[in-house]
């Protein structure tokens, strides 16, 4: 099954695509826990080989509470992406509300040593009405 990417951000030839899905089987709604999985595809349309160095997320819940998550790489990797290639990964986000959002950016190091920042598109986290 081909995944449909719902959200896209393009920064200087770097394309970041996101598909997000609510996972009722991983959620515990009666305990106030909702869980989403998101699939990210990073496409390198620059003329340089890039290494993803850090991630910076801004996660907002329905009450307006903001959590900032920063760290090296993604899911334990600092992938190197050649020109014309892409890197995919899947991760998840728990919230204590049925709705929220995520957005952020990655920092990449080019093969010539320069760093560049690529936007991660804003995407909503919304559980179906029947899920809570």
UniProtKB/TrEMBL annotation:
Where does the source fall among the domains of life?
A: Bacteria
Q: Which residues form the ApaG domain?
A: 8-132
Signal peptide positions on this chain = none
Q: Sorted alphabetically, which Gene3D superfamilies does this protein's record hold? A: ApaG domain (2.60.40.1470)
**Alphabetized NCBIfam families for the sequence:** PRK05461.1
Q: Check the record and name the PANTHER family matching this protein.
A: OS05G0170800 PROTEIN (PTHR47191)
Q: What is this protein called?
A: Co2+/Mg2+ efflux protein ApaG
Q: Which gene encodes it?
A: apaG
């Amino acid at each position: 099954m081909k995944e449909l990417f719902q959200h896209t951000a393009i920064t200087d030839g770097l394309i970041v695509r996101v598909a997000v899905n609510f996972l009722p089987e991983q959620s515990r709604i009666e305990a106030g826990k909702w869980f989403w999985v998101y699939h990210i595809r990073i496409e390198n349309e620059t003329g340089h080989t890039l290494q993803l160095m850090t991630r910076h997320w801004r996660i907002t819940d329905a009450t307006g509470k903001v959590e900032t998550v920063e760290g090296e790489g993604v899911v334990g990797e600092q992938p190197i992406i050649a020109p014309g290639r892409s890197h995919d990964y899947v991760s998840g986000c728990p919230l204590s509300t049925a709705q929220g959002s995520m957005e952020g950016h990655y920092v990449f190091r080019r093969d010539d040593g320069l760093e560049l920042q690529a936007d991660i598109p804003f995407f909503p986290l919304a559980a179906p009405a029947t899920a809570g």
